[in-house]
Amino acid sequence: MSTAILKPLRNKSSQKRSEGRAAWILAAPALLLLTSFVVLPVILGLGLGFTNAQLLSPNAPEFTGLSNFKTLVGVATTTIHAERNTDGSCVKDASGQIAFESLRDRTREGSKYPNLVGKTEVKRFINEKNCSAKIVLAGDPTFWRSMGNTLFFALIVVPVQGGLALLLALLVNQKLKGRNFFRTIYFIPTVTSMVVISMLWRFIYQPEGLINKTISNFNPSYVPIDWLGNPKTAMPAIIFLSVWQAVGYHMMIWLGGLQTIPQELYEAVRMDGANKWHEFKFVTIPGLRHTFVFILITITIAALGLFIQIGILTGGGPLDSTTTLVWQSFVHGYQRQEIGYGSAISFVFFIMVLFISLIQRSMTKRLES
Amino acid sequence: MKISIGRILSYVLAIVLTVFFAFPLVFMVMSSLKPDFNLLQDTGSFRAFLPVGPISFNNYIGVYDRIPLLMFIGNSLIVATTTTILGLFFNSMLGFALGRMEFKGKSFVFAVIISTLILPFEVIAIPLLYMMVKLPVLSFKGGIHFTQGLFNNYQVQILPFIANAIAIFLFMQYFKSIPKELDEAARVDGASWFLIYRKIAMPLAGPAIGTVSILTFLPMWNAYIWPVMTIQDERYRPIMIGLQYFYVNFGTSWGQIMAYLTILTVPVVILFLSMQRFFVNSIATTGVKG
User: Fold this and answer.
1) Most B CBs within 10 Å, among A56, A177, A192, to test the B interface
2) What is the CA radius of gyration of chain A?
3) Could you say which DSSP state residue B103 is in?
4) In chain B, what residues touch A184 (CB-CB under 8 Å)?
5) How do the pLDDT tens digits run along chain B, 290 residues long?
6) Which of A56, A186, B23, B90 could form a disulfide with A30 if both were Cys (CB 3.0 to 4.6 A apart)?
7) Minimal Cα distance from A58: which residue of B?
């Protein structure tokens, strides 16, 4: 560098200006790409949610206002009635069910109940005394199933995965022989593609797969369970493999946090006669506060985005028991080419992620003050 | 060192967990060497995790015969390597500007990057797909003209992933940690900012380069959803999509699937084992500082 010829000294403001120019030139390529392929799609997504855009349609998308969102989150209730017999009981049809008036009359185009048009029955509460039934309808029942499944998945995965990861970290943070080997093994599933992991577990969960055959060996009268084909077990099976895959990653983050705690703190409380539990309670836990917030947020956001496992293992089934928000955005936006509706679902997901990151911000602020 | 019950329990637990985390991958590799009949028969006993029975590489040969394997691997390497290299340049440049220079609008640029840091790709996948399909593209085939849509090629797999908020953030952090005196001295000597970036900052950024390379290359090798959505032309398919050839309803060969899964996984595990330092680094940086 010493070979460079000294330039004449310039005044401060022109130096600043040239620094500004150089900085923008250096920043330009990445900024341009980031704007085009991240910022712009976010804005475009917000806009498309208010249109009827189709992927391969030659027609320009039309502005449809809140229509997509109304279908998506719209719910309504209505009450239908049945005639009474002379003895006061409700009239039944041939199959023994109470013969209610038709719901189709109310939900089809041009009915007298505009708020029910296009909606589907979700639940029916029958009141035999009044010969009536209260019916809950939704514009898109699958959306509500997806929302429920996604939240259920996150509710289980966040504490289980975060907690197990901490236990793993505490285990391999001890001075064990071969602890690097253990860390490596626990971490390997997280670098393996989720597609590969899902295919492997598809075999493991099969009726003729590892789990069923192993149990059969110990218990000949065991009836194999189709883990992924049963609405009761499909979601738990997906939760299990998801935790198995990702827990090593968060173990590493906890480890990073554990290593920032100064050893002197442990020695200090030991001098005061603290046992292992006291050490954990008074040194480890307070020392991991920041790591805790980070782990809480990253697992929550990742859990809300549950998707690839669904695509490879169940396709949202059986009976919508594993459908999720992002899976639905993919089904509508890509498979059915309804970009407008798919974008509306992505928007809901975006709002949830935004909400979580706002929580993170306020938690971090509270820790720092 | 005295041996306590606690330590013995720790070892037992650590070994049990090793089995728990390793068994699917061990099963995958062992099964890839067995004919379908033996693979299914061994399921449920310890034999499933051992290379026993008629062991051969026939499944791998079968995979090779069934799909254009080398082309898929080549496509993935082209896409992942190009993205990694371009990303290293552009993201480090922006990271350098943010970490070491003063300019108007810096805090705004910083805010944009921080806010995209946690944005999952799934949020933008659908609008991005629409954008790519509707995008006018300059074409040079048979004269210069515009065609509509950027899909079924390498560009669509590369372009959206070059600029990466996490990479920018990592570079920024790293460049901040290099003492300022270094470039002040060079400035006095009349060196331009570009020279400082190229000759001082980048040569010192080894660990950041390693970490960012891993963080870009690995997800690109593992890319699945975006190629599913944008690549229908076999000539540009990356390796993960090749899996779709194997789960047709008729004639699913689990042996071949396991062989293919092994082919998908082995490079990643080797990469991980040889660059473990950078992996741990990347997690420490994103985790503790993030």
Assistant:
1) A192
2) 29
3) -
4) 273, 276
5) 556 888 889 999 999 999 999 999 999 999 999 988 888 888 878 888 888 888 889 899 988 988 899 999 999 999 999 999 999 999 999 999 999 888 889 999 999 998 888 888 989 999 999 999 888 776 666 667 667 778 888 989 999 999 999 899 989 988 888 888 877 888 888 788 888 888 888 888 888 898 889 889 999 999 999 999 999 888 999 999 988 888 765 567 888 999 999 999 999 999 888 888 777 776 766 654 43
6) B90
7) B134
The pTM (predicted TM-score) of the whole model is: 0.87
- Closest residue, chain B, to A332 (C-alpha): B126
Contacts of B280 (CB under 8 A, 6+ apart): A252
Contact A328, A345 (CB under 8 A): yes
Burial label for B46, CB within 10 Å (0-12, 13-18, 19+), is exposed
Min Cα distance A38 → chain B (Å) is: 7
Q: Check if the beta carbon of residue B44 is closer than 8 Å to that of residue A217.
A: yes
Distance from CA of A98 to the nearest CA of B (A): 43
- This complex has an ipTM of 0.87
The distance of B117 to chain A (nearest Cα, Å) reads 11
Question: What is the rounded CA–CA span in Å between residue B271 and residue B70?
Answer: 19
Q: Which residues of chain A are within 8 Å of residue B118 when distances are taken between CB atoms?
A: 297, 301, 353, 357
**Considering only CB atoms, which chain A residues are within 8 Å of B48?**
210
